[in-house]
Amino acid sequence: MTTFNHSGNAGDIIYAIPFMNGVKGLKKLYLQLNRASSFTAENHPVGNVMLNKEMAENLLPLLKYVVDEVEIVEDAPEVDYNLDLFRLEYKNLAAGNISLWYSVVYPAIRIDLSIINLYFTGKIQNDYTIINRSERYNNLFIDLSEYEQFENLKFVGTDKEFRIISASVKNIEHLKVDNFLELARYIAGCKLFIGNQSMPFAIAEQLKVKRILEQHYLCPNVIPQGGECYVYQTNDQLKNIINLIK
């Protein structure tokens, strides 16, 4: 059985799915907890670590559709593919494409970012648009009220994130889920996903649903590929996209 380990943020783990799919045969992933993070505790759901137990347990049901076994550990054993090595070998993590970080370390593994890389059963089909906007990677000159042009809006994210966006977007409902597999089922069934550089967008990217990315101009390391996707960094660009797809 081929083994992997990852101690990074939930979004980084989701972006590693194409790489893990490129490795054939039986696979096991170790999720390593409590590695210190470089971001501040105030604006990230897991505080001052990259992956805590609650976040790892929320990932488990979804990751079981990607690999044959997943184990949550404090210290990962020696593995075939260390998915943390990019932090040492990649020189500018604020640019490029997160999904390609792993191939920089292991160039023999070929991946295709244009195809669906996440498959599971039981998507929740409905006529809704999902929005997610974390507190990190925000473009401050975006007028969030632009989103009010869409109907049947559902927000996925924390209570604090919902309070922030609902101050500008009045016609939005907070959609709460039990784990990230349920989140992925909702995203798979939506007619449109809008998000910034956060874990829910990483899921939308693997599913190749119709999606719009608020790309952070200082850290443009999420590059949508495949399916119908749009990227904006300014409010005028967002307006152009809305006029195009509505």
Task: Characterise this structure.
This protein is an alpha/beta fold. The protein folds into 2 domains: 2-105; 129-245, Rossmann fold (3-Layer(aba) Sandwich). 28% of the residues lie in helices and 17% in strands. It has 9 helices and 10 strands. The protein has helices at 10-15, 17-21, 53-63, 86-89, 101-105, 159-166, 180-189, 199-207, 235-245; strands spanning 2-6, 27-32, 69-73, 81-82, 129-132, 153-155, 172-174, 192-196, 211-214, 229-232. It starts with a strand and ends with a helix.
Extract low-pLDDT stretches.
none
The name of the CATH topology of the largest domain is: Rossmann fold
Q: Return Rg in Å.
A: 17 Å
Distance between the termini: 48 Å
Please state how the strands of the largest beta sheet are arranged side by side. Answer: 7-6-5-8-9-10
| Number of helices, where a helix is a run of at least 4 consecutive DSSP H or I residues | 9
How many strands? 10
Overall geometry comes to globular
Strand content: 15-25%
Q: What's the architecture of the largest domain, going by CATH?
A: 3-Layer(aba) Sandwich
Order of helices and strands: EHHEHEEHHEEHEHEHEEH
- Measured as a percent range, the helix fraction is 25-40%
Return the average pLDDT rounded to an integer: 93
Domains, number: 2
Q: Please write the CATH class name of the largest domain.
A: Alpha Beta
Can you identify the CATH superfamily of the largest domain? Glycogen Phosphorylase B
Oligomer: single chain
Query: Which structural class do you get from the secondary structure elements?
Result: alpha/beta
Q: What characterizes the major β-sheet? A: 6 strands, parallel
